[in-house]
Write the structure tokens for this entry.
Amino acid sequence: MRRTAITMTGAALVVILGLGAGAASAQCTGDCGGDDSVTVDEILTMVNIALRNAAVTACAAGDANADGAITIDEILTAVNNALNGCTAQEIRAFYATLKARAEGHDVEGFLALFAKDYMHHGSDVSQIDIPVVLPTIQTFDFTITGIVIAGDTAQVSGTGTVTFNNGRPAESWAEPDTTGDGPGFGWLKKTADGWRIYGDQVRADAYLMTGHNTSPGDDHYFFRARTESSQPITSVIFSGPGIPDTALTPDPRWGGFTAFAAPSSPTGVGTEYSFTINFADGTQQVLHDTVKSWVPTAPSITITPGEGTATFRWTDVSPSVPGASYYWLEVQDDRGDLWQLDDLPLTRTSAVFNEDGTAQGVLESGKSYVAAITIFDQYDDYAYQRLDFTMP
């Protein structure tokens, strides 16, 4: 039998396909001989069955929905399998199952579609809140644009979109996700139980933020380097142009590991820095991140203390900050955070202490405090100004 040509690039089989609207079959449609491939002769057999020139038993694998007939759609699926390989159909079937279990709120079944060793940018399955999020899903769609198969792994390109039944805005993401912002559904592994979500197997998340302190008498730029992981870490070294090798330390406020480092001058956008992460099991992983931006200026803050309260006002510098995103106001006492307002819109330029009732204490007469106003851009790089004040 003459078989269709399959292009090999290195060790990877490259498959480009679209995800059809119909349900995918776990069996390889058109594989009449059961050898995990579809030939031209097998497609011709399906055509003869569709024309009633042969019985459906001549190619039971062509009857994907087992209705006793061969349809045009089933022939087209078989042609796709001949061109792209039967594994592609298995993967399409996997995503159809993922969709059904998400929309059916089947938490246990959905979790079963993850490999036991799933890891994506430092997160394991327990850290992606599936039992909390899945019951709120209304629709779950994943449109495949390409698949790269290498041995027992596959990297799937596409776009996922989820809508929710609780008023939460719809969310979309691209796969394969390389940022850690998505769930890593584009990384698959073939197991004894079938294809499973594997993640990118990056055991930690490392990211670089830039900061700019514009407080009076202390104007300087700096890096804030962070790593997070579900795996125990023993040490992290942050290194790159313009800074000495810097050890990250455990961050009691936000978790993970953090370090601050001040370059002699702001390095260029795109400059790469490294995180050498040593894990408790003796393994090591080196991750990288780049400078995305430097925020050039921060708001100027003024404070008007009153009896048991204070009013904070700041200048709107968002027109001078490319990609400006939001403001963040915080007040600290000698023990740490006392009150904060985050995700403030750029139209907001004032606030009154504890206006939302979330303060961890009160402003005491005669006591000194620190207030800071920060502007963040689209990359979460930031600039801030701090100011001391004393209550009357």
